Amino acid sequence: MAVRQINNYAEIVFTCSEAVHQNSELVAEEHSIVRVLSGQLKVIESNKTYFFETGETFLFPKNRLARLIKTGKDDLPYRAIIVKLTQDVLKAFYEHKKNEVFTVFKTDAIIPLSKGPLLDSFFASMLPYFDLEYKLPRELSELKIQEAIAILRSINDSMDHILSDFSEPHKINLVEFMERNYMFNMPIEKFGYLTGRSLTTFKRDFKKVYGTTPQKWLMQKRLELARYQLAEKNRKPSEIYLETGFENLSHFSYAFKKQFGFTPSELSKAK
């Protein structure tokens, strides 16, 4: 069945996927807290994979790349609540803390949050909101975000250092970033933004380094990774097409055959 998403305001979202398996890319522009209500969530980053089960919660930092694989479990669909900690609310919150000094740093990983009554009661209090026949008042939405910030600060000593960072991505090493994140299927504009470049500058710098366009290079890299997974790791096409940046199996098979002259299935059978 189709994905059901209730979005009273963009900051607080209830999502329910009754599909057996659903895949999506995530590049969050805001820090987000995610609570898995049922099912399982697999989060794949460039260098690490996380599994979150029913009742588990984590902070997904802003401007991080990940692939999300949502799966039902124990005859229940995947269901989750996502609370986005918007820049406006965070800035207003820390404006009142301006007498306190925080050493800002960017986290390079998802942060699992320990189970406890504060988080449990916070998410339980929001479930009735999704039965409303009208939009959640913005004032209440902002209050819930402030409550989430206060809870995070109380259960994790490093939160102030992360949440008080309001800087934009700065210009970083393009080659290191692309070699680490090429398997993520997102717009070229987003690759540019996350490397601290405008689209024009990104394409220009990319051409200087690689001698080709980002689109051609990305396709080549993803297909090479897919061939390695099939030939050397003995994995099945259905297991790796999502992880290598393709949206569906048919497109993956078509592109693979166009590049190598045989389909992924034919390569698997030859092993």
Automatic annotation (TrEMBL):
<dbReference type="GO" id="GO:0043565">
    <property type="term" value="F:sequence-specific DNA binding"/>
</dbReference>
<protein>
    <submittedName>
        <fullName>AraC-type DNA-binding protein</fullName>
    </submittedName>
</protein>
<keyword id="KW-0238">DNA-binding</keyword>
<dbReference type="Pfam" id="PF12833">
    <property type="entry name" value="HTH_18"/>
</dbReference>
<feature type="domain" description="HTH araC/xylS-type">
    <location>
        <begin position="172"/>
        <end position="270"/>
    </location>
</feature>
<dbReference type="InterPro" id="IPR018060">
    <property type="entry name" value="HTH_AraC"/>
</dbReference>
<keyword id="KW-0804">Transcription</keyword>
<dbReference type="InterPro" id="IPR009057">
    <property type="entry name" value="Homeodomain-like_sf"/>
</dbReference>
<dbReference type="GO" id="GO:0003700">
    <property type="term" value="F:DNA-binding transcription factor activity"/>
</dbReference>
<dbReference type="InterPro" id="IPR050204">
    <property type="entry name" value="AraC_XylS_family_regulators"/>
</dbReference>
<keyword id="KW-0805">Transcription regulation</keyword>
<dbReference type="Pfam" id="PF22200">
    <property type="entry name" value="ExsA_N"/>
</dbReference>
<dbReference type="InterPro" id="IPR054015">
    <property type="entry name" value="ExsA-like_N"/>
</dbReference>
